[in-house]
Amino acid sequence: MSLTLIVFSGAAVRLTGSGLGCSDWPRCTSSSLRPPLNTYSLIEFSNRIFVVLVTVTALAAWLGTYLRRPRSPRRRDLRLLGASLPLGVLAQAVIGGESVLYKLAPVWVMAHYWLSMVILVAAFELWHRSRLEPEDLGRPGADRWTVLYVRALVVGAAAVLVLGSIATAAGPHAGASGTGQLVHRLGWWGAETLRRLVVAHGLLVTSLGLATIGAWWAARRRGAGEELVRTLTLLCLLLAAQGLVGIAQYALALPTEIVWVHVVLATLTWIGYVHAWVAAGPLPRSRRRWRERQGSPPRPAPRPTATR
Asked: Whole-angstrom distance between the N-terminal and C-terminal Cα of the chain?
């Protein structure tokens, strides 16, 4: 939960123009750890304080992988995933610091968001695995074709996030409007950069949405597990809401509040795709093995035809 909330608060920092409210790192200014008494500095400093809470929860999750009962050396997977959380938060702190020192250069800000999405994958996988025994982890939630389909969707969702963050790096929300500092924006095609990126992003999102509807239909038709079908259903609803918000924000010239909602929905949608990957389970070697896992008897072999 805290790893998701820090994404929301980070987006709020940028969209309120408070990204350079603290102009130095790890101190807020070159001479003081405390922020100046103005709105933008207090917003940025509050986000930094929230990082401390996120670090504590990440360390607690890692410690919990050693304290769970019964202890089992087979749960080395949980300990590795748990360790990745505080390490990821530490890496985020470094990248966030570089973002400030390089005056919100697009490459650092985009990397900051991308790493957040990777950490969410590790956190979700830790939560999922902690609910299951080791022998249950190898149980597929769908047949081979459906699992491959869902995994392709996750790759597509990652591409949508990357392209969306690139489009944001060409847009008007540079993150430093409150302090009045000039922040470089992407301008590969001059004045046409933002429009081209938004169109490309919209086409990719539309393709992903149609593919997700297809996955939902296929999962129902091919007897996938209830968890996967339910997750794909929620994903379709999230994508519909995201599409409406995306159209509204572009038509209204990217107002701050709607852009923030767009980022929130994008993060929740990404978590949904990660959940779909996990719910689909490992890749079965064949459809026959999938049927056996589900408890269905194998189909009888055809009787040989008598020859005269």
From this structure: 72
